[in-house]
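Subject: Interface between my chains keeps coming out wrong

I've been trying for a while to get a sensible model of this assembly. When I model each chain on its own everything looks fine, but I need the whole thing in one frame so I can look at the contacts. Pasting all components below, labels as-is. Any help appreciated, I'm running out of ideas.
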Amino acid sequence: MHYVGTDNLNSGDILAKTITGNSAGLMLIKGVALTDALIVRMKTHGIDIVCIEDNLETMTNDIISPSLRSEAVKSLKDVTSLLKNVVKPQGNFVNVLEHIITAIIHELTENNINLGSMLDLKTHDNYTFEHSVNVAVLSLMTGMAMGYDYSKLKNVGIGAILHDIGKTLIPVEILNNEGKLTADEFELIKRHPMLGYEKAKLALDIDPTGRSIILQHHEKINGTGYPFGKTETTIHEYAKIVAISDIYDALTSDRPYRKRWPVKETLDLMTTLCETHIDTRIFNIFMSRISPYPPGIKVLVSNGKVGFVLNNENRLRPLIGFTDGTVLDLSKVGNFNFYIREIVD
Ligand SMILES: [Fe+2]
Ligand SMILES: [Fe+2]
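Reply #2:
Try treating it as a single job with all components included. I did that and got this:
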């Protein structure tokens, strides 16, 4: 269960705690499915916040629609499995991917969503595909913030969605065991950028910049990455963008060998990778579009109370609702003694 402001309730949400004792006599029993009329009544009775049952769609803070996300995952999965036996360029595969990338660009533009946190739950079987779609969305969001035009965005998106295509040529048991690999297995995983690059060159007629993303997304700006040990001046800018999205999405995802990291801790860790692994200027642009406190997340506030983020229009000082029904809008509190102390697991 989690707390939601009545302004953000939807018809069909299930009440997780009974509302009683309202002086005007409104009483709603736990388990009731809310209707538009009930939501209006709650508002007119001055109820600002209620506890509802968890629903993944309300807990996630997705920046593309669930239908487009699943279409993207399915298309990428189809193209990948067909590609396995293909040895010459297939224009129709590229068309399918371009269609998906264009749809994502349109949604990002039309929804005018400027904050993402991408706390979606990936299944282990589909991890590489779902991760690749996330990396494409995050990279497009960053490219847009950098002022890229459609043609640049399209090449970033295609390269990003295909960045780990080489992993589909590596056994799943090894991929799902990344936490404890033998030296040989790790060397095999490290071949995925080159394997993917070669596959793309052979079977996909994409822009060379897209192939550079596949080949260079594990390079680090201090030259310690792979496969070539390229440096700040020789890594393609698109690959620098995708490297940031890739690290972010990997850390904020549950993996078989570890739990996902909270957004705030992930951004803090990534800040320490600037100047060594990732490009500082691009990371600052990326970070400005990510919300460390997505709606639904539980936080400990400096007043000692635990609450839930209801709304993160102010990405660093969001609106918080507490279990006693009170609400604290950090963006409107002039007193900076009030702040989020930590995210509660
Ligand atoms: Fe990779
Ligand atoms: Fe990746």
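Reply #3:
Confirming on my end. The beta strands are 2-5, 49-52, 298-301, 306-311, 319-322, 327-329, 340-343.
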